[in-house]
Amino acid sequence: QVQLVESGGGSVQAGGSLRLSCAASGFTVSRVCMGWFRQVPGKEREKVAIIGTDGSTTYAESVKGRFTISKDNFKSTLVLQMNSLKPEDTAMYYCGSSPNRYCIFGYWGQGTQVTVSS
């Protein structure tokens, strides 16, 4: 059974940092595409960062140079390091995975809230 559990969210002032983690179970993380998404009320969920099975990464333009996605295959953990946070980064952040190496996401965690104050 696929399970994704996020942690690390919280409240921080603008310019601060947070590190989100996603503990994965029920599958082999090295064999699937994984990523971080975020959503604010009234808006669609948007991609933040994705990491492929070959380690390649893609980022939303709004977070390039500030956020870093990484994956620990041995610990089955996905991480999002967020630096230089801005109030517009405030959202519920979700960990997602695909059932294979193609980045079509079908599994989601419960989310972790990130709030950035000015």
- Could you give a short account of the major beta sheet? 7 strands, mixed
- Look at the structure and give the mean pLDDT: 97
Order of helices and strands: EEEEEEEEEEE
Oligomeric assembly = single chain
Portion in beta strands: over 45%
Query: What is the count of DSSP helices, taking H or I runs of 4+ residues?
Result: 0
User: Alpha-carbon distance between the termini?
Assistant: 40 Å
> How would the global form be characterised?
globular
User: Using only CA atoms, what is the Rg?
Assistant: 13 Å
Structure characterization notes:
This protein is mainly β and 118 residues long. It contains no helices and eleven strands. It has strands at residues 3-7, 10-13, 18-25, 34-39, 46-51, 57-59, 67-72, 77-82, 91-97, 107-108, 112-117. The strands form two sheets. Strands 2, 4, 5, 6, 9, 10 and 11 form a seven-stranded mixed β-sheet that branches. It is globular and about 40 Å long. The N and C termini lie far apart (40 Å). The model has no long low-confidence stretch (mean pLDDT 97).
Overview features:
single chain; 118 residues; mainly beta; 4-stranded antiparallel beta sheet; globular
Describe the structure in brief.
The chain has 118 residues and is an all-beta fold.
List the helices and strands and how they pair.
Blueprint: E1 3-7, E2 10-13, E3 18-25, E4 34-39, E5 46-51, E6 57-59, E7 67-72, E8 77-82, E9 91-97, E10 107-108, E11 112-117
